[in-house]
Amino acid sequence: MDVDSLDPSLGVCEKDVKALEFIQEMTLNCDSVQEKVLEEILIQNAKTEYFGRYALDGATDRLTFKSKIPVVTYEDLEPDIKRIANGDKSHIFSTKPISEFLTSSGTSAGERKLMPTIHDELDRRTKLYSLLMPVMNLYVPGLDEGKALHFLFVKKSAKTPGGLLARPVLTSYYNSEHFKNRSFDPYMVYTSPTEAILLTDSYQSMYTQMLCGLYQQKEVLRLGAIFASGLLRAIRFLQLNWEDLAHDIATGTLNPKITDPSVRKCILNKLPYVKPNPTLAEFITAECSKSSWEGIITRIWPNTKYLDVIITGAMAQYIPTLDYYSGGLPLPSTMYASSECYFGLNLKPMSKPSDVSYTIMPNMAYFEFLPHDPAGSSETCPPSQLVDLANVEVGKMYELVITTYSGLNRYQVGDVLEVTGFHNSAPQFRFIRRKNVLLSIDSDKTDEAELQNGIDNASKLLSEFDTGVVEYTSYADTKTIPGHYVIYWELLVKDPSNPPTHDVLNQCCLAIEESLNSVYRYARACDNSIAPLEIRIVKNGTFEELMDYAISRGASINQYKVPRCVNFTPIMELLDSRVLSTHFSPALPHWTPVRKQ
Ligand code: AMP
């Protein structure tokens, strides 16, 4: 059965039929839905300062919109966004009040981007969530007979000078009535109590979610987190904490490190299964103390049918590790979304990771596509030549441009997508990559300029040793959990009797970390989702060998540039075979919730 099979006699429940019919209706009428969405947005926001600035004069048709409204990036909008953050309540982007800012993991000038949003957007996001399980139910039967162990987390919210909340989109969603007071749905029963999910202390939240997941291990039918890196972090947490968890289960008590009163009360007084269970504790102890953790997920949670995590884009690097821990369970990446807008879903969730495509739902926003030139000259495409959702061509790559109900107009998201086919008249896209991202472990996204700045700052520490960095490249090492950035350095030590000390090279690691953006520093300092940065000093001449290797494989000697990030195995092997010494950041980089600007 697949999404086209809506015959209720095939076991599809009435609620699911409605959701699947909605998907059919939207995708059959992709272009007309898009036309209507744009018209609605332009009517809703007709009296905004932004449209006034470009003399849109109440027009609601695509042609006028495209001819008058420019394609923009976050940096173009930043002055207006700052006004809103500082308390300007005039209708700059939207005639509906800005309800809060969603903080994106993308950064601008080293700080998280602030995305203004309106209350209605929550309904649109909830609608997209409501489509996920009906699709999944077509492929995996019986998910209503058990629970989901989903590691879901919130972060601390900040306030802008004007008093608006600024927080990640999922923190906003989990704190909303839409999530907290959701009606009972047998397909969406989580093992984690809401009190545990809403704890901002990530240790206490992870501990209590893991504890509840272990108590209910037989009931768990799917295990997940938002991104693959999050699920692996949970497995690492279990490796480090299983003795404490087993002790709690054996005795029916709760580790005193869990101090939050509401979650203590919930775990100890409200959950009937929290009571001494020595048999389960012994089982967990036996499994976790085995020397190999291969297949640990299915050993502890034997009824798991799939891992509910996103494994496309930067997360693809985690697929082998997930396979190792789960014995190769299916990895359906169910949706594609961002702080700016939720885009779409995967209609064939059981497909192989390399075949995952997302169908953008035409009701979510007005979507346009900038033809993507891998050589990087896409910016020159005239705004009038952006392609509409229904008109993209299979096999071509595009950058996503969105116009949202919240008031982003022709906004470049920064994602590069490739069209793989169509579902009815709606195109399906493979996520290719995020533009300009060199390194990523978790939600961090580090670009070439940021890395270069980090190298420049660290190099200053070498000047007293009359030493300079001749060449460098980088690598996101995800073999350990959490993963970490590795920087390969070739040095020119002018006075061999006074080379940089081990301690100074360690400090160089920290200097690079201090120069990276706030999402990276938060992940290091607060989230423990990235391990200390490492510098590997390589022998002199290594980068020349790297060039020789590239030329032997057909690179042009005139055009050769040192790749600033590597992940091709022979190159990694070459670099690693030339390593003279390794150095790690000795401390956590600085992070505060106060924005620099
Ligand atoms: P944020 O604004 O922090 O929520 O991050 C949104 C970005 O995460 C998107 O623009 C994508 O680059 C990335 N992303 C979200 N969903 C997926 C997915 N299913 N596959 C690959 N990348 C994704």
UniProtKB/TrEMBL annotation:
<dbReference type="GO" id="GO:0016881">
    <property type="term" value="F:acid-amino acid ligase activity"/>
</dbReference>
<keyword id="KW-0436">Ligase</keyword>
<dbReference type="InterPro" id="IPR055377">
    <property type="entry name" value="GH3_M"/>
</dbReference>
<feature type="domain" description="GH3 middle">
    <location>
        <begin position="358"/>
        <end position="434"/>
    </location>
</feature>
<protein>
    <submittedName>
        <fullName>Indole-3-acetic acid-amido synthetase GH3.3</fullName>
    </submittedName>
</protein>
<dbReference type="InterPro" id="IPR055378">
    <property type="entry name" value="GH3_C"/>
</dbReference>
<dbReference type="GO" id="GO:0005737">
    <property type="term" value="C:cytoplasm"/>
</dbReference>
<dbReference type="InterPro" id="IPR004993">
    <property type="entry name" value="GH3"/>
</dbReference>
<feature type="domain" description="GH3 C-terminal">
    <location>
        <begin position="450"/>
        <end position="568"/>
    </location>
</feature>
<dbReference type="Pfam" id="PF23572">
    <property type="entry name" value="GH3_C"/>
</dbReference>
<dbReference type="Pfam" id="PF03321">
    <property type="entry name" value="GH3"/>
</dbReference>
<dbReference type="Pfam" id="PF23571">
    <property type="entry name" value="GH3_M"/>
</dbReference>
<comment type="similarity">
    <text>Belongs to the IAA-amido conjugating enzyme family.</text>
</comment>
